Amino acid sequence: MRFNESWLREWANPALDTGALMHQLTMAGLEVDGVEPAAAPFTGVVVAEVRETAPHPDADKLTLCQVFDGSGTFPVVCGAPNVRPGLRVPFARVGAVLPGDFRIKSAKLRGQPSEGMLCGASELGLEDLIDGLLELPADAPVGTDIREYLSLDDNIIEVDLTPNRADCLSVRGIAREVSVLNRVPFNEPAIAPVPPTLDDTFPVTVSAPEACPRYLGRVIRGINPAAQTPLWMVERLRRAGLRPIDPVVDVTNYVLLELGQPMHAFDLGKLNGAVDVRLSREGEKLALLDGQEITLRDGSLLITDASGPIAMAGVMGGAGSSVTDATRDLFLEAAFFAPLAIAGKARSYGLHTDSSHRFERGVDPALQALAMERATALILDIAGGQAGPVTEVASGAHLPQPAEIALSAGRVEALLGIALPVSDIADILERLGMHINETGAGQWTVRAPSWRFDMAIEQDLVEDLARVYGYDRLPSRLPAIQGGGAAQTETLLSARHLSDLMCARGYLEAITYTFVDPAMQQALAPSLPPLALANPISSELAVMRTTLWAGLLTTAQRNLNRQVARLRLFEQGLRFVPQGGDALLQEPMLAGLVYGNARPQHFDDKARKADFFDVKADVEALLAAGGRTGFRFEAADNDVLHPGQSARISLDGEEAGWLGRLHPALAAKLDLPKDIYLFELRKAAIEQAKVPKFSELSDQPAVRRDLAFVVPEEVPAGALLEAVRNACDARLREVRLFDVYQGDGIEKGRKSLALGLTFQERSRTLREAEISDLIAGVVSQLKQEFNASLRE
Predict the structure, then answer these.
(1) Is 460 marked within a binding site?
(2) 478-516 pLDDT, tens per residue?
(3) Boundaries of domain holding 461
(4) 615 exposure class (CB count in 10 Å sphere: 0-12, 13-18, 19+)
């Protein structure tokens, strides 16, 4: 939303400078994206009148002018085609400095003296709205500085609004906020109804009242097609980023900016039969104002007449009924279209307009009559004509009703951490336009005004109280710690903790869409139909992901296409798994992807590719963060992962995730390298953590014994380590695998696993006999479970 500061201050003018006002708006939730001057700096330009003109004797395209600037008459040579006697224009005197540090000097042009320069919009650093000189109104005061006359010492403000604050997509809406925040008057201009001077009406029907609960129309006859939009309106439109077109279109754009109500004007002579607001039928065509023709699908809201579609409701008018230079009679419309009827429709046809932007987010359903009177008055003032009565078709059953919300001072204190005085709560709500009814001490029923359609629950009211009271005035307090209970033994690892752990191991966090390409989803889970979006933002993002690998692999594709040689990515987010019928499992997951060298390039480290065990070490570090045991890696097959290089991760017998190398066939299908490794873990399994507890350090010596066992090659090392722990008691402090060997001296089909066992007693030194007994127990247990034998 762009607008100029002086326009805003006409509605609400607090005693704040520009910087303070912008900070206040941002802190109130209306984030100011930028502030820029309304015009580039220049000096020495005044309003002047062209008194006489004559052809240049030596140049066909130049004109000799006598220009009066209030202090004297000066000869000026001008090349503009629209220069003529009586014209009032900006005049740069000798000594003036124009944008770009262009200095005006006395000169001779083709032998004729020129004491200054007549200026167009482009010479003043404004948008080049007019071909030639910038024509000023006939009553422009000669000699007045042009910066003062055009109010160019102004600022253009751009505000970035969240979707719920569509009520501020107008100068009126933002001024209402400024008035509330500063307790200054809200100077809304009086908009009186325009009495009809004609009896003419045009028939209107609404066949889709649920999509268009209110539609207003008005006939205006006899406008002057040669009328010009006044300069003050042109300037306000320019500063809002809109180009002037003709008075009728300019007025509808002006009302949109001023009040927030999109409007449209049809050429009455081009309408055929009654106007009907209805839904489109498959295959209907509409030529739009921007020159393109679209083929409509079922369900798009249209404005039609007997000949067919004449406008796409809430989006853009049709070329066949548009206002032109020859238009003398108008049919002016103002409507309320339900947001759900407009949302996504413009984008589905590749369109986005100021009108659709507002209707998608919501327009005040009580604003249409006011906007109609405002636009009518402006058109009659600028272009003349006569207006008929307003025709209104409304369906009260489909119009949105203001929400009534229960609010209590106790709830406000609980959410904000501060007890606002009851009188302040009531005062703020009333200034926001809320109707409040006190139901008890510190309790109210609040009815939101028609323009605050974002008000639905108590928290919405509390948020507004915080905005107006001031976020920076809310206290910062640490939560009270409740003591005296039983010692906590378990906790949850936060998402931030898990992110920090992954980043510490060299990973970068990715954030991808929860909706993904159907082709990618089909490749990863061909037997699991995903949830399809009813209104996707594009065909490449049309289904909900059932695995975070979809986003990570897409990210890998883009990075690899840009010559990235090493990737270590992770993401936390939801996966959406259909459970049959309408049931949908939304499960938090953590997933990762690894490609390239195991470590960053370094002169003291020989480069090698990351392998399964590098990634497994990262996953083990993640699993160990919570201090829980019971995780196991089991060889298993997964459609996405390489057979023989994949593992199911289980916790207490329940599946906790997967780890492995990308399946070669899938890598080829996705045009990805084969040496990509993936893992995905259920956060419910890994975020449960034991609270660390101090254990007393022993001052007794530890004893280590290294044992090498020969076992069948299919025996997992993890199972062997678990069996060792089970065979020993608390005196076993650590068991570690430090060597795996197959080759000479080892029977084919078997392998040697070397284990380091560390024993320690807390209160005394272990005797050799005790250590021997422990070793004997280990050997016996492994022989019994795995047919293991000590390696000679």
Answers:
(1) yes
(2) 766 655 555 566 678 889 999 999 999 999 999 999 999
(3) 404-473
(4) buried
According to DSSP, residue 415 is labeled H
**Could you give the CA distance from residue 573 to residue 694 in angstroms, rounded to a whole number?**
34
CA 331: distance to chain centroid? Answer: 37
pLDDT in tens, 356-408: 999 999 999 999 999 999 999 999 999 999 999 999 999 999 999 988 999 99
Clarify whether residues 663 and 609 are in a common domain. yes
Pairing mode of beta strands 275-279, 204-206 = parallel
Whether 729 maps to a domain, the answer reads yes
C-alpha atoms less than 13 angstroms from C-alpha of 492 in its C-beta half-sphere: 6
Helix 422-431 crosses helix 409-416 at what angle (to 10 degrees)? 90
Distance CA 455, CA 465 (A): 12
Measured distance CA(687)–CA(676) in Å, rounded: 26
Is 464 annotated in a binding site? The answer is: yes
Under DSSP, the state recorded for 18 is H
- Tell me the CATH number at 775: 3.30.70.380
55 sits in the region (left: phi over 0; alpha: psi -120 to 50; else beta) called beta
- The rounded distance, in Å, linking the Cα atoms of 658 and 660 is 7
Domain identity same for 284 and 375: yes
Report residue 42 as tokens: 């220049």
Assigned domain for 316 exists:
yes
Buried b (16+ CB within 10 A) or exposed e, 232-255: ebbbbbbbbebebebbbbbbbbbb
Interior/surface letters 296-321, b for 16+ CB within 10 angstroms, e for the rest? beeebbbbbbeeebbbbbbbbbbebb
Closest C-alpha to 507, from 593, 588, 574, 572: 593
